[in-house]
Amino acid sequence: MTEKHVPNDQPKLSVTDWVIAVLFAATIVVVTAQVVWRYVFNDSLIWTEELSRYLFTWMTFVGAALAIREATHIRITALTDRLPPTARTWLRVATLALIVGFLAYLAVIGFRWVRLNADTRTPALGLPLNYVLYAALPVASLLGVGFGIRRIVALLRERPQTKQEAP
To answer: What is the pTM of this model?
Structure first.
């Protein structure tokens, strides 16, 4: 008797997925500490508000890059749904190419911005602001460029669906 192999439908988590999970968990811990100290101990931790803001910023930017990977950004498909499959694929490729170009520009500008703010420190924690906050823009932009290029390659490799195959 042979065993039937059932493929695992669970998606594998990438490093980026784990980074988002860690950022989210850290944000929850820091905000919870802030609430507990304020309302239970009637005191305030100075650094929690600042750190939660930086964690949230990183989570937002890296999450936007992940949305490019998963194609989950909001879009209006009224035009693309009416196009033939080949034209729809080329429009998606062109759109992704524009997004990748814009993100590459943001990465270049972002790295300049990080370098220009090398002497700035965060008020409460005293950490270098250029790495703690400003670096989120170029790092997430580079992630988005990589994910966008991967999606372009995948779109160009796949065969457009015909009307009979369309879901």
So the answer is: 0.80
